[in-house]
Amino acid sequence: MFELKPLSPAAITAALAKAERYRLLNEPEQCESICEDILRTDPDNHGARIALILAITDSFPRTTRAAVRATDLVAALPSEYDRCYYGGLVAERRGRAVLSGGGLGRRAATPWLQQAMADYERADALRPPEHDDARLRWNACARVFNAHPDLLEEDDQPGTPIMLE
Q1: Of 4, 111, 144, 163, whose CA is between 20 and 30 Å from 61?
Q2: Which of 64, 55, 142, 67 is nearest to 101 (CA)?
Q3: Phi-psi bin for 56: left (phi > 0), alpha (psi -120 to 50), beta?
Q4: In this structure, what is the dihedral angle of CA atoms 41, 16, 31, 70, given to the nearest 10 degrees?
Q5: What is the pLDDT of residues 58-112, one digit of tens each?
Q6: Rg for the chain (alpha carbons), in Å?
Q7: Domain-by-domain residue ranges, the chain?
Q8: CA angle at residue 127 from 122 to 132, to 5 degrees?
Q9: Using CA atoms, how far apart are residues 47 and 29, in angstroms rounded to an integer?
Q10: What is the per-residue pLDDT for 165?
Q11: In angstroms, rounded to a whole number, what is the distance separating the alpha carbons of residues 135 and 124?
């Protein structure tokens, strides 16, 4: 096995910018790797935590292997607003990943999207002035339900299992 080389503290700012570029290039694994290096050097780096959460959730359409890691990172965020907002983002992206799979299993997206909306509601109540990100995300989830009302229909077949991913 290889021992990872530590990142120098002076390189953190440039590394974080590079991580963001990899996210924008749709290379979340590269972003994750850089963020992990930053967090090894500076465990409290807020920007690296947020970028890592986003990079992990960028992978959800392909895999939810790191969903627990994303949830753990959200739980460690310092502010209640951030925990609610990013918790909603993790749930929303899991729901959208299930929904994008199509088929009968897409109804499993409903509880994830409902959880996201509940988290966004809590974040909205805590939001800083003129900061409507939680409202924008809540509206995006609402639009999914408005476009697909069947996702909210009650299951009329008792005992029918719902596939969860």
Answers
A1: 4
A2: 64
A3: alpha
A4: 70
A5: 988 787 778 899 999 999 999 999 999 999 999 999 999 999 887 767 888 999 9
A6: 18
A7: 1-58, 79-154
A8: 100
A9: 17
A10: 52
A11: 6
